[in-house]
Design a protein that fits this description.
Elements: E1 11-15, H1 23-38, E2 43-47, H2 53-60, E3 64-67, H3 78-85, H4 95-102, H5 104-113, E4 121-125, H6 126-132, H7 134-145, E5 149-153, E6 163-165, H8 171-179, E7 184-189, E8 194-202, E9 207-209, E10 213-217, H9 223-227, E11 232-235, H10 242-258, E12 264-271, E13 277-283, H11 293-300, H12 305-335
Parallel strand pairs: 1-2, 1-3
Antiparallel strand pairs: 4-7, 5-6, 5-7, 8-9, 8-10, 8-12, 10-11, 12-13
Binding site for Mg(2+) 2: 281, 283
Function: Cell wall formation.
Keywords: ATP-binding, Cell shape, Cell wall biogenesis/degradation, Cytoplasm, Ligase, Magnesium, Manganese, Metal-binding, Nucleotide-binding, Peptidoglycan synthesis
Length: 336
């Protein structure tokens, strides 16, 4: 069977909003990407995730759906599962791989097995934390991992519920703040060094790491620092030697491949003072707002955002046609 040509004006539905703590960020991302894609001639509709979504998708039958949903349901694979049930191709990682990447402890375990350095960590469910006694558990944590520590929800994004702990007395409060955003905490050794975000994209000719973005804040890189201009300074590309920049890009691509991700991702890294690179976490639905890191990285590489997003759309459409061709060929073989 011959591949069908890509539509010259693909009909795309962007999913934005949802009910997570990151709803506002998702809506801003959706509007930005929609505007950029429309500038390339694409027919784009933005739809929230609500009771009208499934009938709207069945009625519209778009060529492609791009989930720009952050937080639970948007990144845990569940919405992507529903889209797969409806037979709709998507931009981005599939549902099973999204679930693995969404869980920070599981993702760290997968990349560590692939030989990628990541800070040592433990996970503590809130229920076990209470049953065993908070003080005894936290004493064991600090004895094992030392200080400083980073406490974060095991699932979630936008640095919600994340704390840097430099003294043991601050650890209980950090745990309480973390449990406000999830029932399981990831506690990891804090790596001091240069904080980076490295985006990986597939524009049709294989995976490539975009230039690293260096993040410098006047305090913790929390939700406010991420989405409200003024508190954070970004350097795109990062102020790295070519050798270190190459290692950071290679780690991001290796993590993307180890986790089975697709089309785009953003990996958060730390460069230690000795130049080695540590993996922190990965995001399968990176923010696309005016202060988000993937757009900054793309522009640093010389990409016009509309053209880059359109290339991602074309890659996703080609992948969907390839899957359909394989399915049709398999059906033909069985019928014979």
């Amino acid at each position: 069977m011959t591949d069908l040509p890509a539509p010259s004006s693909p009909r795309i539905v962007i999913l934005a909003g949802g009910l997570s703590h990151e709803r506002d960020v998702s809506l801003r991302s959706g509007r930005r990407v929609a505007g950029a894609l429309r500038s390339t001639g694409a027919d784009v509709t933005v739809h929230d995730v609500d009771a009208d979504l499934v009938p709207a998708l069945l009625d519209a039958q778009p060529d492609l759906v791009w989930p720009l949903l952050h937080g639970a349901s948007g990144e845990d694979g569940s919405v992507r599962d529903v889209l797969a049930l409806l037979g709709l191709p998507t931009v981005g990682t599939g549902p099973r791989e999204s679930r693995v990447a969404w869980s920070k402890p599981i993702a760290k375990t997968v990349v560590a097995r692939a030989g990628i350095s990541t800070p040592d960590f433990v996970t503590l469910p809130q229920s076990l934390f209470r049953e065993l006694g908070a003080s005894r558990v936290l004493d064991a944590v600090t004895a094992r991992l030392g200080l400083p520590l980073v406490v974060k929800p095991s699932r979630g994004g936008s640095a919600l519920g994340v704390s840097l702990v430099t003294e043991a007395a601050s650890l209980p409060r950090a745990m309480v703040q973390c449990f406000a955003y999830g029932d399981t905490a990831l506690i990891e050794q804090a790596v001091l060094g240069t904080e980076l975000a490295v985006s990986v994209v597939d524009l049709g000719d294989g995976l490539q790491a975009l230039p690293a973005v260096e993040i410098v804040t006047d305090g913790p890189y929390d939700y406010d620092a991420r989405y409200n201009p003024g508190r954070t300074e970004y350097f795109a590309p990062a102020r790295l030697t070519p050798d270190v920049a190459g290692r950071a890009g290679a780690v991001a691509v290796a993590a993307h491949e180890a986790l089975g991700l697709r089309h785009l991702s953003r990996t958060d890294l730390i460069v230690r003072p000795d130049g080695s690179v540590a993996f922190l976490e990965v995001n399968v639905a990176p923010g696309m707002t005016e202060t988000s890191l993937l757009p900054q990285s793309a522009e640093a590489a010389g990409h016009e955002l509309g053209a880059l997003y359109r290339a991602l759309v074309e890659t996703a459409l080609r992948d969907a046609r390839s899957v359909q061709t394989d399915s049709d060929d398999s059906t033909t073989q069985r019928e014979r």
